[in-house]
């Protein structure tokens, strides 16, 4: 991931430097300064020993459909366009954001509910890893997941029309800005 991060930052056309919906030159400089932190996060995830797997990377309620019949319930997971092989905890980035957004829309902002959901997801690993190790792995995986999201938008827009690029181009710098804001807030 650190190598991909460096490549992403070097592709300044995608960053829309100086544009209203792009990164500022100062933000790019600060993102470049995050490189050691990105390297540490990747090293930590590798050291934890939880294997990479196929992960959806855009897993939220809008991408899960339920078919209820008299024979039972079948779930269909759609929109695998952002799927990748990566750390399984990176899936929590989109999932927890979607749940938080839904709670906020209903006037129910509840950090405890998000923690409970996260902890339920982590439960299968609690027999081999401490809570603090798992929480740090979640932090690192979701941090690196923001780089993955920027890369996914970059790939999606590579073959896009001019109209599509204009509509969605903000997402590459947007995910990197989100990474920067998280890193400077912690």
Please give a structural write-up.
The protein has helices spanning 2-10, 12-15, 25-33, 35-48, 91-105, 111-122, 131-158, 162-168, 171-185; strands spanning 53-55, 64-69, 72-77, 84-86. It has 186 residues and is mostly helical. It folds into 2 domains: 1-50 and 160-186, no CATH class; 51-128, no CATH class. The strands form 2 sheets. A two-stranded antiparallel ribbon has the order 1-4. A two-stranded antiparallel ribbon has the order 2-3. Strand 2 (64-69) and strand 3 form a beta hairpin. The two termini are 21 Å apart.
Secondary structure topology:
Layout: H1 2-10, H2 12-15, H3 25-33, H4 35-48, E1 53-55, E2 64-69, E3 72-77, E4 84-86, H5 91-105, H6 111-122, H7 131-158, H8 162-168, H9 171-185
Antiparallel strand pairs: 1-4, 2-3
Helix pairs in contact: 4-7, 5-6, 7-9
State the end-to-end CA separation. Answer: 21 Å
Poorly predicted tracts of residues:
none
The number of helices is: 9
Counted beta strands: 4
Q: Average pLDDT value?
A: 90
How are helices and strands ordered from N to C? HHHHEEEEHHHHH
Kindly name the structural category.
mainly alpha
Proportion of beta-strand residues: 5-15%
Shape: globular
From the alpha carbons, calculate the radius of gyration and give it in angstroms.
18 Å
Strand order of the largest sheet: 1-4
The major sheet is characterized as: 2 strands, antiparallel
Specify the helix fraction band: 55-70%
Count of discrete structural domains: 2
């Amino acid at each position: 991931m650190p190598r991909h991060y460096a490549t992403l930052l070097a592709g300044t056309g995608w960053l829309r430097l100086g544009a209203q919906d792009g990164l500022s030159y100062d933000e790019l400089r600060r993102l470049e300064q995050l490189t050691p932190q990105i390297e540490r996060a990747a090293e930590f995830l590798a050291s934890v020993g939880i294997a990479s797997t196929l992960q959806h990377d855009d897993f939220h309620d809008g991408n899960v459909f339920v078919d209820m019949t008299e024979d039972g319930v079948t779930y269909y997971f759609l929109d695998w366009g952002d799927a990748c092989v990566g750390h399984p905890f990176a899936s929590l980035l989109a999932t927890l954001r979607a749940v938080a957004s839904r709670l906020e829309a209903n006037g129910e902002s509840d950090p405890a509910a998000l923690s409970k959901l996260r902890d339920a997801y982590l439960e299968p690993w609690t027999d081999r890893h401490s809570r603090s190790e798992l929480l740090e792995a979640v932090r690192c995986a979701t941090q690196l997941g923001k780089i993955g999201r920027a890369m996914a938008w970059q790939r999606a827009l590579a073959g896009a029309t001019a109209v599509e690029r204009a509509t969605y181009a903000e997402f590459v710098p947007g995910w990197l800005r989100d990474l920067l804001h998280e890193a400077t807030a912690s």
